[in-house]
Specification:
By secondary structure, the protein is of the alpha/beta class. The protein has two domains: about 140 residues, D-Maltodextrin-Binding Protein, domain 2 (3-Layer(aba) Sandwich), CATH 3.40.190; about 100 residues, D-Maltodextrin-Binding Protein, domain 2 (3-Layer(aba) Sandwich), CATH 3.40.190.10. It has ten helices and twelve strands. Helix 6 links the parallel strand 8 and strand 9. The relative contact order is 0.17.
Length: about 270
């Protein structure tokens, strides 16, 4: 009886292992997986012109989409773009809706607990934007002010961590909504990428606003992100970024859409 029970138990465990193995394998994301299906699905951040825009047909375009096109070309597959914002990009990757993200994510230690973050593909300068007549040369000038940020962004973490008396951080789903809150007078200032803010100010003739360069927030870098088990894809993306930089492709695309080479000189690796 005991031997019969043991044999039955081992059979059940063996069946469980057999059924679970294909599932585990299906979760692994490799370049071979992508080549086999013939399409790479990339989540790209929207709402941050001039880094992104839309073409004549209303489809996403811009620096990030061009970079996604280059990645698909290097993989030898078709490209499927999935627009994401700051609030939805992590879920899109975790759920498997996308193979990886080119979504202007900074490789913070907290994000590295959840995703594999690549070497940076670009750099940006984070600055406050406010009315020209608003003094903003020190953190004390933020006392009693309302500042908009994209929810869960690096500027959200930075501004929320200042601990300034009376400073209210107002969160929105993406950069565009955070900027619009300033334009419409809902907040006193916003924290934004300088190139994005200057683009909005110029295109919309917002002559009353300016980027406050006297109080920089930080200069950081953007990385791509894969799921934790996608180690081979992660390494391939590092190689792709390295090659795009040394061949001048990254600077070429940055100049095309932003008007200047990638800020900060040579990109770091880690």
């Amino acid at each position: 009886m005991i031997r019969s029970f043991a044999r039955h138990t081992m059979a059940v465990l063996g069946l469980v292992a057999l059924l679970s193995t294909p599932f585990a394998a299906a979760q692994a994301q490799t370049t071979a997986d992508i080549e086999k299906k013939g399409t790479v699905t990339i989540g790209v951040l929207t709402g941050i012109p001039p880094y992104d825009t839309v073409d004549a047909s209303g489809n996403p375009d811009g620096f990030i989409v061009d970079l996604a096109r280059e990645a698909a070309k290097a993989l030898g597959v078709q490209l499927a773009v999935v627009p994401v914002n700051n609030a939805s990009r992590a879920a899109a990757l975790e759920s498997g809706r996308v193979d990886f993200l080119i979504a202007h994510m900074t490789a913070t230690p907290e994000r590295a607990k959840t995703f594999l973050m690549t070497n940076p593909y670009g750099a940006y300068e984070m600055r406050f934007v406010a009315a020209k007549d608003m003094k903003l040369t020190s953190l004390d000038d933020l006392k009693g002010k309302r500042v908009s940020v994209p929810k869960g962004s690096t500027q959200d973490v930075a501004v929320s961590g200042y601990g300034i008396e009376g400073l209210e951080v107002v969160r929105f789903d993406d950069d565009a909504l955070a900027m619009q809150a300033l334009v419409s007078g809902q907040v006193d200032a916003t924290a934004a990428v300088a190139a994005v803010a200057n683009d909005v100010i110029t295109k919309r003739s917002l002559d009353n606003l300016e980027v406050k360069n006297d109080l920089p927030i930080f200069t950081l870098y953007w990385s791509m992100a894969t799921r934790k088990d996608a180690t081979e894809l992660h390494q391939w993306l590092n190689n792709f970024i390295y090659y795009a930089e040394i061949t001048g492709k990254l600077d070429e695309l940055h100049k095309k859409w932003i008007g200047i080479p990638t800020p900060g000189g040579k990109l770091p690796t880690f």
